[in-house]
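Handover notes (outgoing to incoming on-call)

Open items:
1. GNAT family N-acetyltransferase: sequence verified, structure written out, both below. Nothing else pending on this one.
2. Nothing else urgent.
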Amino acid sequence: MTLAHPGTLSGRLVTLEPLAHDHHDGLVDAVNDGEMWRLWYTGVPTPDGMRAEIDRRLGLQDEGSMLPFTARRTDTGRVIGMTTYMNIDAATPRVEIGSTWNAASSHGTGTNPESKLLLLRHAFEVWDCPAVEFRTDFHNHQSREAIARLGAKQDGVLRAQMRRGGYVRDTVVFSITQFEWPGVRIALEHRVARHLDTPEGAPRLG
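GNAT family N-acetyltransferase structure tokens:
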């Protein structure tokens, strides 16, 4: 049993397209925006490693454990990052939303909340998942705070769960259940709407 790739998920701020090799140059430009790979507790690919990362994600898609996307700004078409459904359990069904990174200039623009809204909506309303999971490094406080702002609740910490970059990381696990989804959806829709309604040049909140 497998979950089919949903194809392109279109929002008003961000559009998620199935990852393809043609996205390489745009993704390199995006990852250079803020040099996110320099944060030691993240798994963001380097510019030189982008082609291998695309191959890795597409390989996991072929194996049925990942459905990867490239994120674009809807207004300009500019590539701003990557995200995925991963660790797919098609029998339950249950998925994790992860392996996400976004260009620094896109932070606080509403594209990430809408990206999560699109992915969560498909998982809960099309696949009928009873829960959707998020995971991050214990040291990645920015990611932990962003996941909590989505409305996810922390399930716990998996101690010494993964070896990465010369150390063994503790992994913080969050989830949103189907019961919680209606409230989470309304909150995310309001977050996205604030960015659509904000005049150009005014301060924007994530």
